[in-house]
Amino acid sequence: MADQGRWFKLWITALTDPDLENLSLENFGRWCRFGAFLKAHGTRGTLRIKPPGKALCDLFRVPTFDKVLDLLGSFPNTEIRYGENTVTVELTWRNWLKYQEDTTVARRMKKHRMLRLKKRGEEKRRDEKRSKTPISPKGGELVFEFWKWGFEKTRAKFTPDRRKKVAARLNEGFTPYEIVWATVGCSKSPMHMGQNDRDTVYDDLTTICKTGSQIEKLQVHAKEQEVISELRKFKEETGIEIGSQEGQGDTSTVVHSGTGGGDEKSGNREVET
After folding, report:
1. Is residue 4 part of a domain?
2. What angle do CA 80, 84, 89 make, to 5 degrees?
3. 260 — alpha (psi -120 to 50), left (phi > 0) or beta?
4. Phi and psi dihedrals of 252, rounded to 5?
5. Which residues fall within 8 angstroms of residue 51, CB to CB, at 6 or more apart?
6. Among 100, 131, 163, where does a domain finish?
7. Residues 133 and 198 in one domain
8. Number of domains in the chain
9. What 8-state DSSP symbol labels residue 262?
10. DSSP, res 243
11. Which domain, by its residues, includes 76?
12. Where is the composition biased (Basic and acidic residues) (predicted)?
């Protein structure tokens, strides 16, 4: 479920790609099957596997893992790396992000950030001496309540560190809705949900609000319709309303991440108080 995708894109240019044209029809089929397998079980174009790699042997319909590696070596833009103990093999599709990732959200977030920075610059030039308008604590409280609800952290407190991180992002111009979006994205990020070298879940509010760039990176993992849907659930279950950003009309909702990452759950997590 790594990329949590339902599709693997086969671009029509694959039919005339000079590197792919070097493959036999049988190996072209294997290349397509490998792409779908990587989408289902890898993380953003990378997959780690240990011999004998029966799943890939069955996928390619070959008898040995060595034959699998021979085939992968013939595929364009496929990189094979061996671990220090030569037990784990890391397979990477180098141009995966270019052809497989949905960058629509990322482009929108980048555009929104540039507009926000431009607006802040214009306001600063209009009145260099104007004091910074204090952020209402209500926005931070809403973000915290949503995060606590979404990750089922019923005993979590709005600690000074969490409050400071949220306030910093709000002062940068991020809205509570945008931070909620990042919270949903965190719940859908395989790395943050424990698929990493440390098998540790990184879902604390201080991690989500670490920097403005972190907010935007996490937003990429969630579609806006998913955010809106979760916001409705939040309102229905808690009665708390979080207004959406411009363009969403009267939609007032928050996100239920569905990760089950409550304080009572077991497993490695960030230290929480």
Report:
1. no
2. 30
3. left
4. -135, 105
5. 65, 87, 89
6. 100
7. yes
8. 2
9. -
10. B
11. 12-100
12. 120-131, 262-273
Indicate the SS3 state at residue 200: strand
* pTM (2 d.p.): 0.47
CA dihedral 17, 105, 255, 190 (to 10 degrees): 40
Tell me: do 86 and 112 sit in the same domain: no
Q: Is 247 left (phi over 0), alpha (psi -120 to 50) or beta?
A: left
Identify the residue whose tokens are 């920075």.
117
Q: Which residues have C-beta within 8 Å of that of residue 36, sequence separation ≥ 6?
A: 8
Instruction: Encode the chain (273 residues) as per-residue pLDDT tens digits.
Output: 344 456 788 888 888 888 888 899 999 999 999 999 988 888 888 988 888 889 999 999 999 999 999 999 999 989 998 877 667 888 998 888 777 765 555 566 667 777 777 777 776 666 555 444 444 448 899 999 999 999 999 899 999 999 999 999 999 999 999 999 999 999 999 999 988 888 899 999 999 999 999 999 999 999 999 999 999 999 999 999 887 643 333 333 333 333 334 443 445 665 455
Indicate if 70 and 116 belong to the same structural domain.
no
Same domain for 54 and 108, yes or no, is: no
Ramachandran quadrant class, 194 (left: phi over 0; alpha: psi -120 to 50; beta: rest): left
Assess if residue 152 is contained within a domain: yes
Pick from 141, 177, 180: nearest CA to 162:
141
